[in-house]
Amino acid sequence: MFLVAELKTQEGQLVAMLTVPPKDFKTGSKGFFGNTKAEIDGKRYQVQIQIVEIGSKKKTEEAE
After folding, report:
1. Looking at the record's lineage, which domain of life comes first (predicted)?
2. In this structure, how many other beta carbons lie within 10 angstroms of the beta carbon of residue 20?
3. pTM of the predicted model as reported, rounded to 2 decimal places
4. In terms of Cα–Cα distance, which of 36, 40, 33 is closest to 17?
5. Residue 34 domain-assigned?
6. Are 31 and 56 within 8 A, CB to CB?
7. Please, which contacts does 19-27 make with residues 24 or more away whose CB atoms are closer than 8 Å?
8. Can you give the residue range of the structural domain that contains 21?
């Protein structure tokens, strides 16, 4: 499963669309992450989206 994210202006004009595949983060958390480039008013931007599942990081024995 993956997510699709749309970045739009206030007027509803589509600026960028990106797929956001699942990711296991180095911290141990799980979620989704994706990036792309977009042009807004003639300027180029790098776009990133990170979605982290709350409570998905496994607790270490020391923390328990």
Report:
1. Bacteria
2. 19
3. 0.80
4. 36
5. yes
6. yes
7. 20/49, 20/51, 25/52, 27/57
8. 3-52
Does the structure show a pLDDT above 80 at 59? Answer: no
Identify whether 62 is part of a domain. no
Residues 6+ apart with CB under 8 A from 27: 57
pLDDT at 63 over 60: no
Q: Model confidence over 1-32: pLDDT tens digits?
A: 999 999 999 999 999 999 999 999 999 999 99
- Eight-state DSSP code of residue 60: P
**Residue 45 domain-assigned (yes or no):** yes
**60 pLDDT band (50/70/90 cuts)?**
low
In this structure, is residue 26 part of a structural domain? Answer: yes
| Number of domains the chain is built from | 1
Q: Which residue has the tokens 């990106």?
A: 18
